[in-house]
Design brief:
The protein is an alpha+beta fold and 163 residues long. It has 3 helices and 4 strands; from the N terminus they run H-H-E-E-E-E-H. It has a 4-stranded antiparallel β-sheet with strand order 1-2-3-4, with helices on one face.
Amino acid sequence: MVFSNTDIVIGVLALAVIILAVIIFYQEHRLQKILRGKGAKDLEDSFKLIENGYLDMKKFRDDMTGYLKSVEYRLKKSVQGISTVRFNAWKGIGEGGNQSFASALLSENGDGVVLSSLNSRDRLSIFAKPVKAGKSTYELTDEEKNALKEALTKIRERQEKLT
């Protein structure tokens, strides 16, 4: 049997129509599965529920952003650099041992206090010197300077780890 060019073209077109019909049937079946038992109003309600959920999530995100900014602000003011240097304040006269100390307690901005204690056999003296931006308006002893320097170094190291 000999086929003419017209017969071949008609056969190819018929096959293409059959394939397209199967594809359309398959897509129609999928669409019916999605919409099964649902009317257009129900589908619209579903979209509204999704939109409300999105708006709630957006409000929650905005609230959390504000809260985290507040926490970040308060955290910067908290003590983040701590250092203690122990020393013998009475080396020359043989009293005290390493019972004296100088401690620096600083915020992220270098604000805080240097506390120092001078211990002897019969007396204890405690001093507090304010620190602003890593410096004190009061004269610091060498031990207090060392404690302040170590606390500032710890703050810098912590900041470098976070970046």
